Automatic annotation (TrEMBL):
Belongs to the GILT family. Its main location: secreted. This is Gamma-interferon-inducible lysosomal thiol reductase. InterPro entries: Interferon-induced_GILT.
Length: 225
């Protein structure tokens, strides 16, 4: 069912993604969620780093984003995770002068969808803003074309994202996603490919994302765990 990776290994990524919770310090610790039942100290626990390596037209990626990933995101579990998306997947790239040319598993529209999502992640910065946008895109049959409608629905200004998609800046951003994917150890062999705190997490891909995040968190569990 999964899209197998072709016999090339040049992928990569980058990650931004502020965590989903608000009022969070800009480093990798956060204060206890309000759901804890203990004292009100400000002990900090490391957020669970969840990174999804995906490509825009892959059906299993769409199912994960619409299903388990959205379900943990749209719950108190979002307060203990730091989500990063790497829209590149099984694409290939080659350098042409000062720009990169991408070839995507599901064709050119997938490449357009990937760079759209990459621009959105980089420009919007805050995952509380960009993840619902990408969730909206991936909930359609043509993510590459859904930008204006999803942006309007979520109150996001699409103009800078639109401009980014065909700019040298957007091209460089997508190349960063290629590098991030290529940096995976072990290399990915399919998408969606999920890492938890940097390690490949097969249960995260197979229906146990919530259990994996909750189980890895060292602090008091949020209510939805
Ligand atoms: C992210 O956006 C949300 C919703 O607008 C906001 O509440 C939150 O403070 C923002 N987080 C950061 C780190 O800017
Ligand atoms: C989330 O992860 C990104 C990428 O690793 C990192 O730059 C950022 O500081 C993290 N944010 C938090 C709140 O931990
Ligand atoms: C998010 O979860 C709440 C319940 O906690 C639910 O009412 C709402 O419909 C969910 N939103 C989406 C977009 O799934």
């Amino acid at each position: 069912m999964r899209s197998s990776v072709a016999l090339f290994a040049l992928v990569a990524l980058l990650g931004f993604a502020a965590a989903g919770a608000s009022a969070m310090p800009a480093h990798k610790f956060h204060h206890r969620p309000v759901h804890h039942n203990g004292d009100a100290d400000t002990a900090a626990y490391p957020l669970i780093e969840i990174t999804l390596y995906m490509e825009s037209l892959c059906p299993d990626c769409q199912a994960l984003i619409a299903g388990d990933l959205w379900n943990v995101w749209n719950s108190s579990i979002s307060s203990i995770m730091n989500l990063t998306l790497v829209p590149y997947g099984n694409a290939k790239e080659s350098q042409s002068g000062s720009t990169w040319e991408f070839t995507c598993q599901h064709g050119m529209y997938e490449c357009v969808g990937n760079v759209l999502e990459t621009c959105a992640i980089n420009l919007l910065q805050n995952s509380t803003v960009w993840f619902p946008f990408i969730h909206c895109l991936e909930g359609t049959s043509a993510p590459n074309a859904a930008g204006p409608a999803c942006a309007a629905k979520l109150g996001i200004n699409f103009d800078p994202i639109d401009a980014c998609m065909t700019s040298a800046q957007g091209n460089a951003m997508e190349h960063e996603m290629a590098l991030k994917t290529a940096a995976l150890v072990p290399a990915h062999t399919y998408v969606p490919w999920v890492t938890l705190n940097g390690a490949h997490c097969v249960p995260c891909e197979n229906g146990h994302l919530k259990q994996a995040i909750c189980g890895a968190y060292t602090g008091p569990k949020p209510a939805d765990c």
